[in-house]
Amino acid sequence: MHIVLIPAFEPDARLVDLVTALAPDGPVLVVDDGSGPAFASVFSAAAHAGAIVVSHPRNRGKGAALRSGFAEAACRWPSASVVTADADGQHTAHDIRRVAEVLASADAEGPAIVLGSRTFLAGAVPLRSRVGNVVTRTLFRATTGRRLTDTQTGLRGFPAAALGWLQSVPGDRFEYEFAMLLRARDAGFGIVEVPIATVYLDGNASSHFRPLADSARIYAPLARFAASAVLAFGIDTLALLVLHAVTGVLLFSVVAARVLSASMNFAVNRSLVFGAGRTIPVRTAAARYFSLAGLLLIASYGLITALADVGVPLLAAKILTDATLFAVSFAVQRAVVFAPVAAPPVADPGRAYAAAREPLSVRE
């Protein structure tokens, strides 16, 4: 059995059309993310068409709406899987059913998240959406080493076993969907892609994605990592110049400056970039970090030497090497050095959520 979960903010009649098409297949759960009185008639029509509608009293973001929907589904249908779809008509009933079918078969081989992935061909997709997917797809591959076609799709299938874990994924807006992909493997879930139709209506005018604010939320971890690296470079350079001016000993100055900058970089990454300050013991994280730093130093020397030997100018070799190792360092620090300690599984995510959630109005 599967549930279709549709988060909605200020929807139009396309939501009602989708509910009408899906209701005969099984339960449809719609989360009204604080759309307000002006949209009450749309949600009433969706309920009349067969949906169960729960409402946030105020707008909290797509991630919060999804999290509420997952927990509501766990309360009502504890053993059911969940397929999420957007309310704006981008996902057809046929594709939603297809994702549900693949989810059922994939779960038999091991827990997996199923993505309904679009084809991003020029002309078929608005430029904003095409560029956004290329950037997030590249970021995902750089940080996980895995290749996905569509990291921004809202059509996704989740096994019942994932509902408790989904409550712990951070983010209340669009970054929530990207965060769950980044954390899926560490949580024990595979990712399976299913091709779906690429549908954009009116140039995706109905999307509530805010290019600047929401992109900043999605890319914040990498931006913080880059800022930390730049700060470490500045401290390393300044300390080298000062120590060499005072001591006149180059080797001591280089080593001491690197120890100082690396210690600062470790502290910043541990507490601000990866948020592992309260979960990873300092000694464990430090041992992993400085082991990685040593390996990266060896790799940097080897790559620069190899590139220089084939005629690549030193500066270009340095830039190419650092760019490559930057991505490697981010991925290893996120997945290994500061890997979060797994939280104990939530035996009954629905009941736990019901005890703590703010009241939701329900229409059936």
Automatic annotation (TrEMBL):
State the annotated membrane topology for this chain. Answer: Multi-pass membrane protein
User: Which Pfam family, any one, appears in the UniProt record?
Assistant: GtrA_DPMS_TM
TM annotation in the entry: 249-268, 289-308
| The keyword Transmembrane is assigned to this record | yes
Q: Which domain of life is it from?
A: Bacteria
Its predominant location is membrane
Q: Where is the GtrA/DPMS transmembrane domain?
A: 224-338
Gene Ontology terms, cellular component aspect?
membrane
Keywords assigned by UniProt, alphabetized: Membrane, Transmembrane, Transmembrane helix
Q: Where in the cell is it found?
A: Membrane
Q: Name one GO biological process term.
A: polysaccharide biosynthetic process
Glycosyltransferase 2-like domain: which residues? 27-134
Question: Which family does the UniProt entry place this protein in?
Answer: Belongs to the glycosyltransferase 2 family.
Name assigned to this protein: Bifunctional glycosyltransferase family 2/GtrA family protein
Q: Native species of this protein?
A: Candidatus Microbacterium phytovorans
